[in-house]
Design goal:
Elements (H helix, E strand, L loop, with lengths): L5 H30 L6 H6 L6 H12 L2 H14 L1 H28 L6 H9 L1 H34 L3 H7 L2 H40 L6 H14 L16 H19 L2 H9 L5 H29 L6 H6 L2 H10 L1 H39 L5 H29 L3 H12 L3 H9 L5 H27 L4 H4 L2 H13 L1 H11 L7 H4 L15 E5 L12 H28 L1 H7 L5 H29 L1 H16 L21 E5 L3
Antiparallel strand pairs: 1-2
Helix pairs in contact: 1-7, 1-9, 1-16, 1-28, 3-9, 3-12, 3-13, 3-27, 4-5, 4-13, 4-16, 5-11, 5-12, 5-13, 5-25, 6-7, 7-8, 7-16, 7-17, 7-18, 7-20, 8-17, 9-13, 9-16, 9-17, 9-27, 10-13, 10-27, 11-18, 11-22, 12-16, 13-15, 13-27, 15-16, 16-17, 18-22, 19-20, 20-22, 20-23
Length: 663
Amino acid sequence: MAVLSQGVGYGVVIGLGALFAITMSLVTKALHRYLNENQQSSEMYMTAQRTVKMGLTASAIVSAWTWAATLLQSTSMAYKYGISGSFWYAAGATVQVLLFAVLAIELKKRAPNAHTFLEIVYARYGKSTHIVYLCFALATNIVVSAMLLLGGSAVVSYLTDMNVIAACFLLPVGVIIYTLFGGIKATFLTDYAHTAVIFIIIISFVLTVYATSPLIGSPSKMYDMLVASAQASPIPDNAQGSLLTMSSLGALIFGIINICGNTSTVGVDQAYWQRAIASHPAYAVKAYLMGGLSWFAIPFGLATCLGLAGRALQIDISASDVSAGLVLPDVASRLLGPAGAFASLILVFMAVTSASSAELIAVSSLLTYDVFRTYIRPGASGKAVIRFSHSIVIGFGFFMSILAVILRATGVDLGYLYTLMGVLLCPAVAPLMCTLLWSKQSKLAATVSPIIGLACGLIAWLVTAQGIYGEITLESTAANYPMLAGNLASIIVPIPCLLVLTWIKPQNFDWESTKAIQQVADPDEEDNKNTISIPIEPKPVVVEETPEETMAGLLKASRFAKISSLVLTLVLVILWPLPMFGSQYVFSREFFTGWVVVSIIWIFCSTCAVAIYPVIESRAAIATVFKGIYQDITSFGKSESSPQGTSIASSGDQAEVILAEKN
């Protein structure tokens, strides 16, 4: 296709990557100078001192969950199955984030000083179980990282003819740099910037399709074009072959696979636990609910818009290109020419780099705390933790690139890996959730049930492919029914296993060992050479018991999380789609117009929640930084910082007085 030149491809990948690396490094320096945030503290580097507010946490959740697949695969599903494809992608990947709000608050209650979810596993069950879940956790990060680079490099190469191997290696470079300099705080701030840009581009696409495009220009015209398209090429297993129905067997099967796979890539991915750990206890639940509902707007709005536009314009896209996620750039280019191609390139670049930063810091945390500090150098100091984590960020960044190149050479694409991930990762979900939520689960149940589940999932997947298609190939194993069988076996089989094994010998765990997990002390941390920090209230290194009023608040938040997440999940995957599936209803013109209006309103509300609200929430800290910069400029570096500097991520009770030294 190559709508854009190779120079544009290299310019975006290298130029934007360098811009974000430099900008985030400067922001990190500014936070250090004007708000006294020392990124060389291991606790700040890895957990942001557990004080990130609601808006920034929600924005980071949206960014971490906006993979290349979020944009590419969701649009492909809308092109493949019609309106039901994009809905099932959105609903099937939103409920996990909503339900994770429960785990987030339970983590705050039962392991307030944990750095990773595997520290909880180790504290509760010991070494053997810890190693089992470490394998699943790293496999999750590897699979997600591979999908990010497979999808991103495919789009960059498709639009610009940039060498696909070069794209695989260059995309992570900028991410590696700013993650090295700023740790999780830099990834949070970059996540915010990426999320804001993504929503701006989505709004421009949606308004183009439904309002200004001479090719479509209104929901009514889109409706007529979709009716004509379905008459010319009916969709198999859809009610009346229509694109405008929720009654689609293929989309429903994909929805089940999607729910299974994404349950694993949220529940077993340290990136989401990391955001729960970094968030302030008062904001954790609301941040995950806000982030999940905001993320829903991306596949629901963008995929419905561009995926259906591809069908309305009757763009002929091959099955392999659909699986590779190339519907979005194809349709964007047809609608807006080079401008659309460039916008889709930026959109995918933002998704790939922002989610990659989350995976980098997640792997760094796992290998630092659960390998280095657990098995190699127990009790390692903060400086040693920082040094080791830096080496992991660099090493895993290049490993991601090499893996993506190898997978591409074998013929594995984004669509294949996306539907396979549940088969590989789901076995750890149920026993891991019970580790934090059920005090009775035994060590034997936690250790054995995921291994049995993985074996059963792989057998079900391959046997179904052989039984239906008579062969085991990439094509046969990628089909809906083998993937469905493998995903369901992987997520269901561990449940009866853990129940039976726990019934034999329950544990009766009291959570004291998880509450005793300690933060990493930084006694050798260098004092800031430019500022003197006078803490108003020193923060203890270990929180041995939670004050009663805080525990009461956590219990209240826990009840709210359980009720709200379950209600929202029930609405999104049962009450909304299933009656429409069973009714065989095909949308009328008025109903389709209402559906489009709801998606647009959802997009604008989400933009306010994760792009505007974080700025309002942190306005005092932002003002402090700009005031400090202004004073430095006007006094040639001899400024006096604000006497009441408050971190963007900190709560009011942690304010510090910052006194600038005279040069």
